[in-house]
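Morning F.,

Quick status update on the modeling queue. The single chain you submitted on Monday has been processed. Sequence for confirmation:
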Amino acid sequence: MMRALGLAGVVALASASLAAQGVMVAPHAVFIDHTQRGGSVLLYNPGTAPVEVTISTIFGYPTTDSGGGIKLDTLPADSAASALAWIQAFPRRLTVGPRERQTVRLLARPPIGLADGEYWLRLIIAAQAGRVPISGIGDTTAIQVGLTLEVRTIIGVNYRKGPVNTGVTLSNLRAQIVGDSLITRAKIERHGNAAFVGMIRETLVDSGGAVHALQVGDSVVRTYQSPVGVYFTMEPRLASAIARPALPRGRYWLRYEVVAEREDLDPKFVLKATVIKGVPTTVVPAAATAGEWQVSGSANAFVIISFTLPTQLTNIQALPGSTMPISFGATSAIWRRSTNNPAGGNVFNPAVGAVGRLGPPPNFTMYIWLGGTVNAAPTAKPGIYQGNVVVSLIYQ
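Structure tokens below.
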């Protein structure tokens, strides 16, 4: 029910409501290479009325506030990575007709001597989406009141010159169960000369290696995922509900991954994270970059899974003697019968081994995944480091 406002004139929103209609923007992230120095964004108006659009640019990047909420910092102290002064958008004003497409072009004029690296700005597409009239209950011939609706879409523009690389380190990871929710925070620091664009993945595992499902909205998932863009430092707070039934008493592990993968972006623009000198880098067995085996044998047979593991990786591109240590922990391996998905598999220590079981008819297979941790010394030489891993299946 609507209450009358005790003002000089009594007004109420018009009975016919108007939905705010903006324009669709594609792509939602623009990457410009120094050799091309240009890009474009396509605007589409799906509505039945023309939309007036204004284009502007700002410098900013995502950060987190004291509570872990993600916000866009438009007044950053460090502007060395700003491309605001030398990337322009054309046209700045346009009208997109009903069911019409128009293109906004980006032109870069970088300064001479620009250092290798990645530079950023944000493109703002502001669409005048309509007007909501406000009518008076009494005589409205002398006074007309309305609200103009505007929809803003803000997308990132990343300009890359020369070799670019990225990576992140994790610290101060903490997790707690509050009521029926899993709350996590971690400090994520970017390394390299480009932003890290990827995903955070969280999996709740009990002491026996079984995954406990989480709930996101109306969906029940085995792994909670959240996109993340780390331009300098982030400390995001993530919350997900624990799916019913409630957790029984016991000890649980949180598998927290930050991976350089994004399903909503073209893979050629997503930089792979590199190993950072002096900082341990871990690949969990459920990661897309983990080692994987598919083995077949006698249906339902029990086998001992035994690994021969390296302790050093050798640089095949450098002089002899250039190595990097590698280690494996209590949760570095997973096996699962019949199903090619590590989520829900059996976690074990590859240095100790485990007893596994091949699948039943007609799928006589077992899948094995292996992760590990490398630690490149500050003096490590660039190149490709390799080692050999042997997995043996011993029938009992």
